[in-house]
Amino acid sequence: MRKITLAALGAAALFLAAPAVAQDKTGWPQSLTIGTASQGGTYFIYGNGLANFISEKLGVNASAEVTGGPVQNATLVQTGDHQIGLVTMGPAYEAWTGKSELAPGVEHTDLRALFPMYQTPFQVVALKSSGIKDVKDLAGKRVAVGPAGGTAATYWPRFFEVLEVKPVVSYAGANDATSQVKDGLIDAFAFAAGVPISAFAQIAAENPVNIFSFTKEQQKAVLDKMPELAEFQIPGGLYQGFPDPQDTVSLWNFAVAHKDMPESLAYEIVKLVMENNDRMKQIHSTASETVPGHVDRNSFLPYHPGAVRYFEEKGIQIPDNLKG
Protein backbone atom coordinates (compact mmCIF):
# COMPACT_ATOMS: atom_id res chain seq x y z
CA MET A 1 0.00 0.00 0.00
CA ARG A 2 1.38 3.39 -0.98
CA LYS A 3 2.30 5.54 1.99
CA ILE A 4 0.69 8.98 1.98
CA THR A 5 2.89 11.59 3.63
CA LEU A 6 1.82 14.80 5.36
CA ALA A 7 3.63 16.71 2.63
CA ALA A 8 1.55 14.96 -0.03
CA LEU A 9 -1.64 15.71 1.86
CA GLY A 10 -0.59 19.37 2.08
CA ALA A 11 0.13 19.52 -1.63
CA ALA A 12 -3.24 17.93 -2.39
CA ALA A 13 -4.98 20.47 -0.18
CA LEU A 14 -3.30 23.31 -1.98
CA PHE A 15 -4.28 21.83 -5.33
CA LEU A 16 -7.90 21.50 -4.27
CA ALA A 17 -7.93 25.04 -2.90
CA ALA A 18 -6.51 26.58 -6.08
CA PRO A 19 -9.77 26.64 -8.08
CA ALA A 20 -11.51 28.56 -5.25
CA VAL A 21 -8.90 31.31 -5.40
CA ALA A 22 -9.15 31.49 -9.18
CA GLN A 23 -12.96 31.55 -8.97
CA ASP A 24 -12.77 34.46 -6.52
CA LYS A 25 -10.99 36.53 -9.17
CA THR A 26 -13.43 35.75 -11.95
CA GLY A 27 -14.13 38.88 -13.94
CA TRP A 28 -11.22 40.83 -12.50
CA PRO A 29 -9.60 43.13 -15.06
CA GLN A 30 -5.92 42.72 -15.86
CA SER A 31 -5.48 46.43 -15.21
CA LEU A 32 -7.37 49.34 -13.72
CA THR A 33 -6.99 53.12 -13.70
CA ILE A 34 -7.46 55.46 -10.76
CA GLY A 35 -8.42 59.06 -11.54
CA THR A 36 -6.53 61.53 -9.32
CA ALA A 37 -5.91 65.26 -10.00
CA SER A 38 -3.00 67.57 -10.81
CA GLN A 39 0.62 66.87 -9.85
CA GLY A 40 1.56 68.55 -6.58
CA GLY A 41 -1.85 67.88 -5.06
CA THR A 42 -2.79 65.28 -2.45
CA TYR A 43 -4.98 63.23 -4.82
CA PHE A 44 -2.01 62.62 -7.09
CA ILE A 45 0.15 61.34 -4.23
CA TYR A 46 -2.64 59.33 -2.58
CA GLY A 47 -3.83 57.82 -5.87
CA ASN A 48 -0.37 56.78 -7.01
CA GLY A 49 0.33 55.16 -3.66
CA LEU A 50 -3.01 53.36 -3.74
CA ALA A 51 -2.36 52.10 -7.27
CA ASN A 52 1.04 50.74 -6.27
CA PHE A 53 -0.46 49.04 -3.20
CA ILE A 54 -3.20 47.37 -5.26
CA SER A 55 -0.68 46.20 -7.87
CA GLU A 56 1.61 44.80 -5.19
CA LYS A 57 -0.98 42.95 -3.12
CA LEU A 58 -3.85 42.05 -5.45
CA GLY A 59 -2.02 41.21 -8.67
CA VAL A 60 -3.92 43.76 -10.74
CA ASN A 61 -1.87 46.24 -12.77
CA ALA A 62 -3.23 49.46 -11.29
CA SER A 63 -2.10 52.91 -12.39
CA ALA A 64 -2.99 56.48 -11.43
CA GLU A 65 -3.81 59.11 -14.03
CA VAL A 66 -3.54 62.89 -13.81
CA THR A 67 -7.01 64.45 -14.26
CA GLY A 68 -8.84 67.68 -13.60
CA GLY A 69 -9.98 66.34 -10.23
CA PRO A 70 -13.23 65.13 -8.66
CA VAL A 71 -15.69 66.52 -11.22
CA GLN A 72 -13.87 64.80 -14.08
CA ASN A 73 -13.16 61.68 -12.01
CA ALA A 74 -16.86 61.14 -11.34
CA THR A 75 -17.65 61.28 -15.04
CA LEU A 76 -14.72 59.05 -16.02
CA VAL A 77 -15.98 56.36 -13.61
CA GLN A 78 -19.59 56.82 -14.78
CA THR A 79 -18.55 56.26 -18.40
CA GLY A 80 -16.34 53.30 -17.49
CA ASP A 81 -13.14 54.96 -18.73
CA HIS A 82 -11.71 54.69 -15.20
CA GLN A 83 -12.46 51.92 -12.74
CA ILE A 84 -11.79 54.00 -9.60
CA GLY A 85 -12.02 57.74 -9.01
CA LEU A 86 -11.11 59.95 -6.07
CA VAL A 87 -13.90 62.45 -5.39
CA THR A 88 -15.01 65.02 -2.86
CA MET A 89 -18.61 64.56 -1.84
CA GLY A 90 -19.81 67.97 -3.02
CA PRO A 91 -18.93 67.39 -6.70
CA ALA A 92 -19.97 63.74 -6.32
CA TYR A 93 -23.45 64.77 -5.17
CA GLU A 94 -23.81 67.17 -8.09
CA ALA A 95 -22.74 64.40 -10.49
CA TRP A 96 -25.14 61.94 -8.84
CA THR A 97 -28.07 64.35 -9.26
CA GLY A 98 -27.24 65.36 -12.85
CA LYS A 99 -25.81 68.77 -12.01
CA SER A 100 -22.17 68.13 -12.91
CA GLU A 101 -20.47 71.07 -14.57
CA LEU A 102 -18.77 68.61 -16.93
CA ALA A 103 -21.85 66.58 -17.88
CA PRO A 104 -24.95 68.63 -17.00
CA GLY A 105 -28.19 66.68 -17.12
CA VAL A 106 -26.46 63.29 -16.83
CA GLU A 107 -27.26 61.56 -13.55
CA HIS A 108 -24.15 59.61 -12.57
CA THR A 109 -26.12 56.71 -11.10
CA ASP A 110 -23.46 54.08 -11.85
CA LEU A 111 -21.15 55.48 -9.15
CA ARG A 112 -20.64 53.38 -6.02
CA ALA A 113 -18.73 54.32 -2.88
CA LEU A 114 -15.78 52.16 -1.83
CA PHE A 115 -14.24 53.77 1.26
CA PRO A 116 -13.75 57.12 3.05
CA MET A 117 -10.43 58.85 2.44
CA TYR A 118 -9.96 62.13 4.34
CA GLN A 119 -11.19 65.70 4.54
CA THR A 120 -10.17 68.35 2.00
CA PRO A 121 -9.74 71.81 3.54
CA PHE A 122 -9.45 75.06 1.58
CA GLN A 123 -6.38 77.33 1.78
CA VAL A 124 -4.71 80.20 -0.08
CA VAL A 125 -1.02 80.98 -0.64
CA ALA A 126 0.49 84.29 -1.80
CA LEU A 127 3.94 85.85 -1.63
CA LYS A 128 4.35 87.94 1.51
CA SER A 129 5.49 90.85 -0.64
CA SER A 130 2.02 90.98 -2.25
CA GLY A 131 0.42 92.06 1.02
CA ILE A 132 -2.34 89.48 0.47
CA LYS A 133 -3.24 87.82 3.78
CA ASP A 134 -7.05 87.59 3.78
CA VAL A 135 -9.68 86.40 1.31
CA LYS A 136 -10.95 89.98 1.08
CA ASP A 137 -7.51 91.00 -0.21
CA LEU A 138 -8.08 88.88 -3.31
CA ALA A 139 -10.52 91.39 -4.80
CA GLY A 140 -9.24 92.44 -8.20
CA LYS A 141 -6.21 90.14 -7.94
CA ARG A 142 -5.14 87.36 -10.31
CA VAL A 143 -6.02 84.12 -8.51
CA ALA A 144 -5.59 80.54 -9.72
CA VAL A 145 -8.10 78.05 -8.29
CA GLY A 146 -6.60 74.72 -9.36
CA PRO A 147 -7.44 72.76 -12.50
CA ALA A 148 -10.85 73.24 -14.12
CA GLY A 149 -13.20 70.53 -12.89
CA GLY A 150 -11.45 70.16 -9.53
CA THR A 151 -12.88 70.77 -6.08
CA ALA A 152 -11.06 74.08 -5.66
CA ALA A 153 -12.17 75.32 -9.08
CA THR A 154 -15.75 74.38 -8.23
CA TYR A 155 -15.95 75.91 -4.77
CA TRP A 156 -13.64 78.94 -4.64
CA PRO A 157 -15.76 80.93 -7.14
CA ARG A 158 -18.78 80.14 -4.94
CA PHE A 159 -16.91 81.33 -1.86
CA PHE A 160 -15.96 84.54 -3.66
CA GLU A 161 -19.61 85.12 -4.54
CA VAL A 162 -20.79 84.56 -0.95
CA LEU A 163 -18.09 86.84 0.44
CA GLU A 164 -18.60 89.43 -2.33
CA VAL A 165 -15.01 89.24 -3.52
CA LYS A 166 -14.28 89.57 -7.26
CA PRO A 167 -10.82 88.35 -8.28
CA VAL A 168 -9.63 87.54 -11.79
CA VAL A 169 -9.84 83.74 -11.76
CA SER A 170 -7.62 81.38 -13.74
CA TYR A 171 -7.08 77.62 -13.72
CA ALA A 172 -3.88 75.61 -13.26
CA GLY A 173 -2.59 72.49 -11.55
CA ALA A 174 -0.96 72.79 -8.13
CA ASN A 175 2.67 72.76 -9.26
CA ASP A 176 2.02 75.15 -12.15
CA ALA A 177 0.02 77.53 -9.97
CA THR A 178 2.66 77.80 -7.25
CA SER A 179 5.30 78.41 -9.93
CA GLN A 180 3.13 81.20 -11.33
CA VAL A 181 2.87 82.73 -7.84
CA LYS A 182 6.66 82.64 -7.44
CA ASP A 183 7.20 84.16 -10.89
CA GLY A 184 4.67 86.94 -10.31
CA LEU A 185 2.39 85.76 -13.11
CA ILE A 186 -0.52 85.52 -10.65
CA ASP A 187 -1.06 87.05 -7.22
CA ALA A 188 -2.37 84.06 -5.27
CA PHE A 189 -3.28 80.39 -5.47
CA ALA A 190 -6.53 79.31 -3.78
CA PHE A 191 -6.64 75.53 -3.52
CA ALA A 192 -8.21 72.55 -1.78
CA ALA A 193 -6.40 69.32 -0.89
CA GLY A 194 -5.53 67.08 2.00
CA VAL A 195 -2.98 68.74 4.23
CA PRO A 196 -0.11 69.23 4.14
CA ILE A 197 -0.38 70.25 0.48
CA SER A 198 2.99 69.40 -1.02
CA ALA A 199 2.99 72.38 -3.40
CA PHE A 200 2.28 74.75 -0.47
CA ALA A 201 5.02 73.14 1.62
CA GLN A 202 7.53 73.60 -1.19
CA ILE A 203 6.78 77.26 -1.87
CA ALA A 204 6.76 78.02 1.88
CA ALA A 205 10.19 76.43 2.25
CA GLU A 206 11.64 78.46 -0.64
CA ASN A 207 9.91 81.86 -0.32
CA PRO A 208 8.42 84.24 2.27
CA VAL A 209 4.68 83.59 1.85
CA ASN A 210 1.33 84.10 3.50
CA ILE A 211 -0.80 80.96 3.84
CA PHE A 212 -4.31 81.65 5.10
CA SER A 213 -7.89 80.44 5.08
CA PHE A 214 -11.05 82.06 6.48
CA THR A 215 -11.83 84.31 9.40
CA LYS A 216 -14.52 83.02 11.76
CA GLU A 217 -17.05 85.38 10.17
CA GLN A 218 -16.13 84.24 6.65
CA GLN A 219 -16.26 80.61 7.72
CA LYS A 220 -19.79 81.03 9.11
CA ALA A 221 -21.01 82.85 6.00
CA VAL A 222 -19.76 80.05 3.75
CA LEU A 223 -21.17 77.26 5.94
CA ASP A 224 -24.57 78.94 6.10
CA LYS A 225 -24.82 78.82 2.29
CA MET A 226 -23.26 75.39 1.70
CA PRO A 227 -24.37 72.75 4.21
CA GLU A 228 -22.35 70.02 2.47
CA LEU A 229 -19.22 71.65 3.92
CA ALA A 230 -17.88 71.14 7.43
CA GLU A 231 -15.82 73.20 9.87
CA PHE A 232 -12.14 72.29 9.83
CA GLN A 233 -9.06 73.48 11.68
CA ILE A 234 -5.76 73.09 9.86
CA PRO A 235 -3.11 72.07 12.43
CA GLY A 236 -0.24 74.44 13.06
CA GLY A 237 3.27 73.51 12.03
CA LEU A 238 2.42 71.88 8.72
CA TYR A 239 4.20 74.58 6.73
CA GLN A 240 7.47 76.31 7.50
CA GLY A 241 6.79 79.59 9.32
CA PHE A 242 3.18 78.80 10.23
CA PRO A 243 3.06 77.42 13.79
CA ASP A 244 -0.57 78.32 14.52
CA PRO A 245 -3.76 76.48 13.50
CA GLN A 246 -6.11 78.06 10.94
CA ASP A 247 -9.90 77.87 10.69
CA THR A 248 -11.36 76.87 7.34
CA VAL A 249 -14.02 74.62 5.78
CA SER A 250 -13.67 71.16 4.27
CA LEU A 251 -15.31 68.44 2.21
CA TRP A 252 -14.98 64.69 2.72
CA ASN A 253 -13.27 62.60 0.05
CA PHE A 254 -14.24 59.08 -0.97
CA ALA A 255 -12.90 56.54 -3.41
CA VAL A 256 -15.64 55.47 -5.82
CA ALA A 257 -15.98 52.72 -8.40
CA HIS A 258 -18.33 51.78 -11.21
CA LYS A 259 -21.23 49.56 -10.14
CA ASP A 260 -20.02 46.84 -12.55
CA MET A 261 -16.69 46.32 -10.75
CA PRO A 262 -16.63 42.65 -9.67
CA GLU A 263 -17.86 42.36 -6.09
CA SER A 264 -14.85 40.30 -5.03
CA LEU A 265 -12.44 42.93 -6.38
CA ALA A 266 -14.23 45.79 -4.61
CA TYR A 267 -14.21 43.71 -1.42
CA GLU A 268 -10.48 43.03 -1.63
CA ILE A 269 -9.63 46.67 -2.38
CA VAL A 270 -11.67 47.92 0.58
CA LYS A 271 -10.19 45.25 2.84
CA LEU A 272 -6.65 46.10 1.71
CA VAL A 273 -7.08 49.80 2.45
CA MET A 274 -9.08 49.49 5.67
CA GLU A 275 -6.78 46.91 7.27
CA ASN A 276 -3.46 48.53 6.44
CA ASN A 277 -3.72 52.06 7.79
CA ASP A 278 -0.02 52.27 8.65
CA ARG A 279 0.85 51.56 5.02
CA MET A 280 -1.74 54.09 3.83
CA LYS A 281 -0.28 56.76 6.14
CA GLN A 282 3.12 56.12 4.57
CA ILE A 283 1.52 57.13 1.26
CA HIS A 284 0.15 60.38 2.74
CA SER A 285 -0.49 61.53 6.30
CA THR A 286 -4.12 62.39 5.45
CA ALA A 287 -4.81 58.64 5.42
CA SER A 288 -4.98 58.80 9.21
CA GLU A 289 -8.67 59.47 8.43
CA THR A 290 -8.94 56.52 6.02
CA VAL A 291 -10.63 54.29 8.60
CA PRO A 292 -13.93 52.35 8.82
CA GLY A 293 -15.30 54.72 11.45
CA HIS A 294 -15.77 57.42 8.81
CA VAL A 295 -18.09 55.35 6.62
CA ASP A 296 -20.99 57.47 7.90
CA ARG A 297 -19.54 60.60 6.28
CA ASN A 298 -21.31 59.49 3.08
CA SER A 299 -25.04 60.19 3.25
CA PHE A 300 -26.24 59.70 -0.34
CA LEU A 301 -24.00 57.54 -2.54
CA PRO A 302 -24.75 53.78 -2.45
CA TYR A 303 -21.84 51.61 -1.37
CA HIS A 304 -20.61 48.96 -3.77
CA PRO A 305 -21.84 45.48 -2.74
CA GLY A 306 -18.23 44.43 -2.13
CA ALA A 307 -17.76 47.37 0.24
CA VAL A 308 -21.06 46.58 1.99
CA ARG A 309 -19.94 42.99 2.51
CA TYR A 310 -16.63 44.07 4.02
CA PHE A 311 -18.01 46.69 6.39
CA GLU A 312 -20.87 44.50 7.59
CA GLU A 313 -18.45 41.64 8.24
CA LYS A 314 -16.69 44.11 10.54
CA GLY A 315 -19.92 44.94 12.36
CA ILE A 316 -20.56 48.27 10.62
CA GLN A 317 -24.14 48.33 9.43
CA ILE A 318 -24.72 50.12 6.13
CA PRO A 319 -28.20 51.71 5.87
CA ASP A 320 -30.49 49.94 3.40
CA ASN A 321 -30.76 53.08 1.23
CA LEU A 322 -26.95 53.08 0.82
CA LYS A 323 -26.62 49.49 -0.35
CA GLY A 324 -25.81 49.49 -4.06
Automatic annotation (TrEMBL):
<keyword id="KW-0732">Signal</keyword>
<protein>
    <recommendedName>
        <fullName>C4-dicarboxylate ABC transporter substrate-binding protein</fullName>
    </recommendedName>
</protein>
<dbReference type="InterPro" id="IPR011852">
    <property type="entry name" value="TRAP_TAXI"/>
</dbReference>
<feature type="signal peptide">
    <location>
        <begin position="1"/>
        <end position="22"/>
    </location>
</feature>
<dbReference type="Pfam" id="PF16868">
    <property type="entry name" value="NMT1_3"/>
</dbReference>
